[in-house]
Amino acid sequence: RDELRIVGDQLGAPTPARLIADVTACVLAGLKNRSIVDIPAEQQGIFHLTTAGFTSWHGFAEAILQFSDDLQERQVRLLSIPSHDYPTPAQRPQNSRLDCTRLQQTFGLHLPNWQNALRLTLDTQ
């Protein structure tokens, strides 16, 4: 298509599976050879994991076009639309950003921004 209509009012942090796997491996490596009873309470529980920063689906699509050599050659117009113009069977939240502070502070991690994670994902395709 020459024009893509993409939701522009839902915010989140696009997070590739590779980042989730890498961070999980780092955390588990730090807990290696420890019994569950030896793991401090602050290192247990639920931790949020996403890339740093946030964007809309429209912003994500713009970045994909910008970073992808194959797609840059195509003249595709992206049109930002409100969620109500793109009905889906599942209702989506306007803001699905997660606070990853606990994960970063507990395990001394620095999470990459979503743009760098996207570049890495596109470069490895």
Structural write-up:
The protein is α+β, with helices and mostly antiparallel strands and 125 residues long. The chain has 5 helices and 4 strands. The chain has helices spanning 17-30, 57-67, 69-72, 101-107, 114-123; strands at 3-7, 11-12, 55-56, 77-81. Strands 1-4 form a two-stranded parallel sheet. A two-stranded antiparallel sheet has the order 2-3. The longest helix has 14 residues, at 17-30. The protein starts with a strand and ends with a helix. The model has no long low-confidence stretch (mean pLDDT 92). This is dTDP-4-dehydrorhamnose reductase. InterPro entries: dTDP_dehydrorham_reduct, NAD(P)-bd_dom_sf, RmlD-like-bd.
Structural class: alpha+beta
Anisotropy-based shape: elongated
Q: Report how far apart the termini are.
A: 22 Å
Q: How many extended strands?
A: 4
What's the rounded overall pLDDT mean?
A: 92
Count of helical regions = 5
Topology as a string of helices (H) and strands (E): EEHEHHEHH
Rg, please?
Answer: 18 Å
Q: How helix-rich are the residues, as a percent range?
A: 25-40%
Order of the strands making up the biggest sheet: 1-4
Strand content: 5-15%
pLDDT < 50 stretches: none
Organism: Candidatus Desulfatifera sulfidica
Function: Catalyzes the reduction of dTDP-6-deoxy-L-lyxo-4-hexulose to yield dTDP-L-rhamnose.
EC number: 1.1.1.133
Family: Belongs to the dTDP-4-dehydrorhamnose reductase family.
